[in-house]
Amino acid sequence: MQYAVFDRPAVTIYDLPQPTMPGQDGQTVSAIGDQGLYGQSCQVLEDAGEMVRVRTFYGYPGYAARDSLRFLTREQMQAYLAAPAVMAARTADLLSCPQVAGIPLLTVERGARLRLAPCAEKPDGWTRVLLADGRAAWVWDRSLEPLCWEEDAVFTQREGLPFDDALAQALGVEPGQLVRRALDRWHGGDPGAFRRALCETARKYLGAQYRWGGRAGSGLDCSGLVSSVYMQNGVLIYRNAQIKPGWPMRSIPREKMRPGDALYFPGHIALYLGEGLYIHSTGAAASGGVVYNSLDPASGIYRADLDQKLTAVGTVLGCI
Questions:
Q1: Could you tell me the CATH number of the domain that includes residue 108?
Q2: Does one domain contain both 186 and 107?
Q3: Which DSSP string corresponds to 3-17?
Q4: CA angle (153, 18, 64) in 5-degree steps
Q5: Residue 263 and residue 212 share a domain
Q6: pLDDT tens for residues 56-99?
Q7: Average model confidence (pLDDT) for the chain?
Q8: Cα(153)–Cα(237) distance, integer angstroms
Q9: How many CB atoms lie within 10 A of CB 275?
Q10: Of all residues in the chain, what percent carry a pLDDT higher than 90?
Q11: Which of 150, 167, 166, 165 is nearest to 41 (CA)?
Q12: CB atoms closer than 10 angstroms to residue 254
């Protein structure tokens, strides 16, 4: 097995080994299915030609351009993932020196994985990080957040093996312990803190434009938003807008939904914030991005078309 890290700010992952496909009414449309953010890891399933078949560490398969990947051996990937790292908290310039006039080496999106670089003396307000190619760069402290997810499933995923089983195998735990492990490691063992963190993270994307297949702060789709919010809080759910066996999301009755749970509609997903309010990335012409809407018919932001089509409420905390 060969591995790679995404070596561009937001790498397009196509569902087909070409960037476009025939759409409705004779239109040519994009074959994009996902995006891999800078520094995140993937398996290399087939390495032939300019389009490489990959599977992300959270289980999404597709095709990425060869020149958007940095290839690693298993040993190199193990060392890469073991190194202390942080997450880009917003669109962030990586600069040649800890000065605002430093030369921009790269601009990354929220969710990028950045390794910490050795630093004999830390200038106030700045952190030294490593680019994927090993070069050092500087970034504002305020542009960083703790990295709160595990990519170990990149080593154990294989066809026919449920994703939770692959991640649990890599971490040496039982699949049913994965959510509890995330809560204990990053949320003080408190389900309430986890729910609050999910809602807070989702709000950071408010106003971002809708982008089919997107996961970046500059544009993301409905499942890109919700799966990214969960990932950034330590739980890896299925990337698309459905509850799929093998990932931790479980269906619960509508009357039991609580803040941080996922709302599922036909081909769409949102994150519930409480008191009828939810946040989602919608391609509706009236919004075209990440907005609030409500399940309360008395609210001015009520959408009857979604309320009436709510098919499931999902939670990862059913057994916690």
A1: 2.30.30.40
A2: no
A3: EEEE-SSEEEEESSS
A4: 30
A5: yes
A6: 999 999 999 999 999 999 999 999 999 999 999 999 999 999 99
A7: 97
A8: 13
A9: 10
A10: 95
A11: 150
A12: 13
pLDDT in tens, 16-64: 999 999 998 889 999 999 999 999 999 999 998 999 999 999 999 999 9
Check if the beta carbon of residue 11 is closer than 8 Å to that of residue 36: yes
- Kindly state whether residues 166 and 105 are assigned to the same domain: no
Does position 320 have pLDDT exceeding 70, yes or no? Answer: no
From CA 68, how far away is CA 36, in angstroms rounded? 10
* Token representation of residue 130: 């490593």
Binning the chain into helix, strand and coil, the percentages to the nearest 5 are: 25, 35, 45
Domain range enclosing 47? 2-74
**Domain match, 226 and 275 both:** yes
The token pair that represents 305 in the structure block: 């078309």
Residue 157 corresponds to which tokens in the numbers above? 């995923």
CA atoms of 101 and 115, how far apart (whole Å): 23
How many whole angstroms separate alpha carbon 280 and alpha carbon 270?
5
Query: In this structure, is residue 293 part of a structural domain?
Result: yes
Q: Quick check: 310 and 257 in contact, CB under 8 A?
A: no
Task: Tell me, yes or no, whether 194 and 278 share the same domain.
Answer: yes
